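Need residues for this backbone.
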């Protein structure tokens, strides 16, 4: 049963991990059921009010944008076809959850390297670097991010306690040119994201002063 043949194909949201050096895609994490709501907060980066009142309209950099969303993961449909989804039968949604969790952990190899540096008496321990994460929510919203918070609520389990359904809460900090520097690969992606906003803003219908109950500005 395939459903109504003219029903639209739903585009899924997700995270794409790329190498900061080569730009090669290392992993794609698809959010199986996209959130029904997406919350965004933008904090203005302006000149402080008190030190310089002569420049109240000047901005010191891009707004700090934070994206929060909730998504659901469910293996029920895949378990209906066990021959086609052996990994799901064996592990439920553990692989998908683990892929998300790797975004906020150094790798075991990185931890071992840091330990080796410390054991050797290195004065500077190299911080672990993660792949560059891109949040993809339609073709108009592809933006570099850092995961700042991840919360997972596992709801149902199979007979061997593999999770088969979970709710995931994500908080993402958009990485701008201020965070990355213009020479970083992610900065080009951020600039494309910003330019997309500017292009869409030109298509806004706007309005007339009369709609605001004003004949003319004083």
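Answer:
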């Amino acid at each position: 049963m395939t459903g109504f043949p003219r029903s639209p194909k739903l585009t899924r949201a997700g995270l794409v991990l790329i190498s900061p050096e080569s730009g090669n895609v290392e992993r794609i994490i698809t959010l199986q059921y996209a959130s029904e709501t997406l919350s965004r907060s933008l904090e203005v980066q302006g000149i402080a009010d008190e030190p310089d009142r002569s420049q109240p309209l000047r901005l010191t950099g891009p707004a700090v944008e934070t994206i929060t969303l909730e998504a659901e993961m469910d293996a029920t449909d895949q378990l209906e076809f066990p021959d086609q989804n052996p990994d799901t039968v064996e592990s439920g949604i553990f692989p998908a959850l683990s892929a998300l969790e790797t975004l906020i952990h150094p790798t075991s190899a990185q931890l071992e390297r840091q330990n080796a540096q410390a054991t050797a008496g290195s004065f500077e321990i190299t911080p672990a670097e993660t792949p560059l994460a891109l949040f993809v929510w339609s073709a108009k919203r592809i933006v570099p991010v850092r995961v700042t918070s991840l919360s997972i609520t596992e709801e149902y389990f199979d007979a061997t306690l593999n999770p088969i359904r979970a709710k995931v809460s994500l908080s993402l900090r958009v990485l701008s040119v201020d965070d990355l520097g213009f020479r970083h690969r992610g900065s080009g992606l951020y600039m494309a994201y910003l330019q997309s906003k500017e292009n869409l803003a030109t298509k806004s219908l706007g309005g007339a002063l009369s709609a605001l109950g004003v004949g003319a500005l004083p």
